[in-house]
């Protein structure tokens, strides 16, 4: 493959999120607080459109309870996709309506792409050859106790071999008092 053939992931224009889709993400993050929510954003192939939000189950607490040594983190600081959601994800890439974005929320710490997020996206520790496991972008939602403070989208940059921020979304309006 020539060096400029482009990243193997996400060669499309940045996905565009409507107000409604963003509102659904923020609602999900509020509902699961103080645990991380996670889910998929789906839309027609070969288009930047996102027209479906699919909530996933954060299995982190279940695995943490079963095997705290292998899963030391709780759902407050991590998300883990179960087999059913992972199968859906994998199969979606063969359909006209692939998953384009995996989203999850962060609890009280801000919407940065953490070391744990990088490991989850690569499926291993980052090094000189690690590549993303799935052809998706990532959105991290900044969930705070009384509101959602915004969100950011991250995309794998093949040249930098890193996830870089490519979009930022405003906070929801605070509830009217
Ligand atoms: Zn995270």
Q: How would you describe this structure to a colleague?
A:
The chain has 177 residues and is an alpha+beta fold. It has a single domain (3-169), classed as Cytidine Deaminase, domain 2. Helix content is 22%, strand content 25%. The chain has 4 helices and 6 strands, in the order H-E-E-H-H-E-H-E-E-E. It has helices spanning 19-32, 60-66, 83-92, 115-122; strands at 38-42, 52-56, 99-107, 137-143, 148-157, 162-169. A 6-stranded mixed sheet has the order 2-1-3-4-5-6. The protein is globular, with a radius of gyration of 16 Å. Residues 1-10 have low confidence and may be disordered. Zinc ion (ZN) binds at residues 104, 106, 114, 116-117, 140.
Summarize this structure as a short list of keywords or feature phrases:
single chain, 177 residues, alpha+beta, Cytidine Deaminase, domain 2, six-stranded mixed sheet, 25% strand, globular, binds zinc ion
């Amino acid at each position: 493959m020539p060096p400029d053939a482009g990243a193997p992931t996400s060669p499309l224009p940045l996905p565009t999120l409507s107000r409604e889709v963003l509102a659904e993400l923020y609602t999900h993050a509020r509902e699961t607080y103080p645990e991380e929510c996670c889910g998929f954003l789906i839309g027609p192939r070969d288009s930047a459109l996102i027209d479906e939000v699919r909530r996933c189950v954060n299995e982190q607490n279940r695995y943490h309870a079963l095997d705290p040594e292998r899963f030391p983190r709780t759902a407050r600081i991590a998300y883990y996709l179960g087999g059913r959601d992972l199968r859906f994800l994998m199969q979606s890439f063969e359909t006209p309506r692939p998953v384009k974005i995996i989203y999850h929320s962060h609890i009280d710490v801000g919407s940065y792409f953490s070391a744990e997020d990088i490991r989850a996206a690569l499926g291993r520790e980052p090094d000189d050859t690690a590549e993303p496991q799935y052809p998706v972008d990532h959105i991290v939602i900044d969930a705070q106790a009384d509101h959602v403070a915004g969100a950011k989208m991250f995309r794998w940059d093949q040249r930098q071999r890193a996830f870089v921020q490519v979009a930022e979304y405003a906070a929801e309006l605070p509830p009217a008092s």
